[in-house]
Specification:
The complex is a heterodimer of chains A (about 280) and B (about 300).
Chain A (H helix, E strand, L loop, with lengths): L6 H22 L5 H5 L1 H11 L14 E4 L5 H11 L39 H14 L6 E6 L6 H12 L5 E7 L2 E2 L2 E2 H4 L5 H7 L3 E6 L3 H11 L6 E6 L22 H12 L4
Parallel strand pairs in A: 1-2, 2-3, 3-7, 6-7
Antiparallel strand pairs in A: 4-5
Chain B lengths: L6 H12 L5 E5 L3 H4 L2 H6 L4 E3 L4 H13 L3 E7 L8 H9 L6 E5 L17 H5 L6 E3 L4 H13 L4 E4 L19 E4 L5 E4 L4 H6 L7 E4 L2 E3 L3 H11 L1 E9 L4 H12 L3 E7 L9 H7 L4 H13 L1
Parallel strand pairs in B: 1-2, 1-3, 3-4, 4-6, 5-6, 8-9, 8-11, 11-12
Antiparallel strand pairs in B: 5-10, 7-9
Helix pairs in contact in B: 1-7, 4-5
Chain lengths: ~280, ~300
């Protein structure tokens, strides 16, 4: 397992992952761009600093579990896993193609390195609750990480899971919310205003941290602290959708489409020049 | 007099026994007593998970347990499980091939006085098209006991369809997943049914003995046993306390229309909701009683 500790190295890796996301999406010709780019820093921190995992031992009992509940941002998961050594990087170019292990949305049956097939929003956190309870029954010490979107907090089932984690006082469960304020048809505030996620989680007796999802020092110190809290932890990661590609940043229009032609060249060019 | 017991009671008894296996856990959406999970919950509190009135999350949790190697039994009423949480069953259970046992009680008109809101008549239709799903409806208490034991050993998602009302034991009880049971050898007509309503089939007044098959496993169908009988009789009546559309009736029609086209008729609920009443009254009003069954058998004989 490759571990990065230095912020500069993490930033470089995140940039590589962003390049890989865009390259795989250009090749696939469909998919989601903004969300994956926005979460590249969090995924880099998880897979290269925080997680206890071994890409060569998929079913290792003590591995931390990662569930990507908002499965549509899977290009960032695939690109991160490939860079972490779960599968060859060239496989990223098979994204969404017939026979691929990298399905348009995550499929555990096709890619056993995944913990769960996801992408029907509002289900991942509930499965994570089940896995966290299972870990307790088995007296295991690993952490169950769920990555969810702000948009999927529209789903009632997400709130059922939030309640369940409270009831069972799951101190081995961390939900990271990608708070990028967009969903497919608009800004979250216009489509379905969520109010204060922080207050809502606190009311359900979760410990809440709010962070800048692009600040590695903050991401890593918060994720480290979160493992020692005596109840479920929610990390609201404020992220910039489309981060790294200027014309995609902060726009909901790039939620569910991929760059083509001149846009594709521009996106790669912007990501190709890393200036810290 | 022979004691009457419900299929849900059989489940409750067998689940309690299964508790000896530490991998077996139970989840329930605030219906412990009604679904009979209560016996397990009392004896094995650390392996019982109360999920509140939140069936969708219960199924997601069950998938999480299954993916970590446990054998979760998730229980509720048929109108809530699978109807409320069909997406979770499709995505988190079936698509992940998660070893979850879905157990629904209060299925069919026989649920009785609770009325239409609580009579699951569409549950099998909702689940039958999900890849990898096994669907079982035991005919009596003892078969429910055996089915519960069997599904714990079976790897993969299973739906167990159970009933609230007590019923008489069927003759020759036995159970093997996917192996239909020849309940009565006979001639002229093959009657294929599932669930305690098979008692109505046995009570149908006729001057001959039809062949009766207890088709407790609705998916996958035991095509061999069914076709062996139908090849002989060429006339089939399918009986289920469920909508005609999408349940056992449809499953048999799909099989026969391709493999052995012949005269077929159905006894089931015809595109309507139920209502409050006693089980017998409801079967009578909605055309599922022994009298209706014998009439349909006679009609088939004349065709």
């Amino acid at each position: 397992m490759k571990t990065l500790t230095n912020v500069k190295d993490l930033q470089l890796m995140a940039n590589t992952i962003r390049q890989d996301i865009i390259k795989s999406l250009i090749e696939a010709k469909s998919g989601h761009s903004a969300g994956p780019l926005g979460m590249a820093d969090i995924f880099t921190a998880l897979y290269f600093t925080i997680l206890t995992h071994d890409p060569k031992k998929l079913r290792w009992n003590n591995r931390d579990r990662v569930i990507l509940s908002n499965g549509h941002i899977c290009p960032v998961l695939y690109a991160t896993m490939a860079n972490a050594g779960y599968f060859p990087k060239q496989e990223l170019m098979t994204l969404r193609k017939l026979g691929t292990r990298l399905q348009g949305h995550p499929s555990k049956i096709d890619l056993p390195a995944l913990e769960l097939s996801t992408a029907s929003l509002g289900q991942g956190l509930g499965v994570a609750v089940g896995m966290a309870l299972a870990a307790k029954l088995n007296s295991q010490k690993h952490t169950v990480y769920c990555i969810s979107s702000d948009g999927e907090h529209d789903e009632g089932s997400t709130w059922e899971a939030i309640n369940a984690a409270q009831k069972y006082k799951l101190n081995n469960l961390i939900n990271i919310i990608d708070r990028n304020n967009i969903q497919i048809s608009g800004y979250t505030n216009d489509v379905w205003p969520l109010g204060s996620l922080k207050k809502k989680y606190q009311t359900h007796n979760w410990k809440v941290f709010e962070i800048n999802g692009h600040n590695f020092k903050q991401i890593i110190s918060t994720l480290t602290k979160a493992q020692k809290i005596d109840r479920p932890v929610c990390i609201i990661a404020n992220t910039i959708p489309g981060k790294g590609v200027s014309f995609m940043e902060h726009t909901f229009e790039w939620h569910g489409k991929v760059p083509q032609g001149e846009d594709a060249k521009r996106a790669l060019k912007e990501l190709g020049t890393y200036n810290g | 007099m022979v004691e009457q017991k419900s299929t849900r009671q059989g489940y409750g008894k067998a689940l309690l026994e299964l508790g000896k296996n530490k991998k077996v856990i139970a989840l329930c959406a605030d219906l412990n007593e009604s679904t009979q999970v209560t016996h397990f919950a009392q004896k094995y509190p650390s392996r019982f998970f109360q999920c509140g009135v939140a069936e969708q999350n219960m199924i997601s949790m069950a998938a999480g347990f299954a993916l970590e190697g446990f054998i979760p039994f998730a229980s509720s009423f048929g109108v809530f499980l699978p109807m409320r949480c069909l997406d979770q069953i499709r995505m988190s259970v079936c698509y992940n091939k998660a070893n979850v046992k879905l157990v629904a009680t209060h299925c069919g008109l026989s649920t009785g006085a609770d009325g239409a809101s609580h009579q699951a008549l569409e549950d099998v239709a909702a689940l039958r098209s999900l890849p990898g799903m096994t669907i079982i409806e035991p005919g009596d208490y003892e078969q429910a006991v055996q089915a519960t034991r069997a599904i714990a050993k079976h790897k993969g998602p299973v739906y167990l369809r159970l009933h609230r009302t007590k019923s008489l034991p069927l003759p020759k009880c036995s159970f093997k997943i996917g192996k239909a049971q020849l309940l009565q050898k006979g001639t002229k007509v093959t009657v294929i049914g599932s669930g305690p309503i098979l008692n109505e089939v046995l009570n149908a007044k006729l001057n001959f003995k039809p062949e009766i098959i207890n088709c407790h496993t609705i998916k996958p169908l035991d095509t061999k046993t069914i076709l062996r009988s139908v090849t002989k009789t060429n006339k089939v009546l399918v009986v289920q306390d469920h909508q005609v559309s999408g349940g056992l009736c449809s499953a048999i029609a799909e099989l026969l229309s391709v493999q052995h086209p012949c005269k077929v008729d159905f006894v089931g609920v015809s595109d309507t909701f139920g209502e409050s009443g006693q089980p017998g009254e409801l079967w009578d009003k909605y055309g599922l009683s022994a009298t209706h069954i014998s009439q349909k058998i006679l009609k088939l004989c004349k065709k």
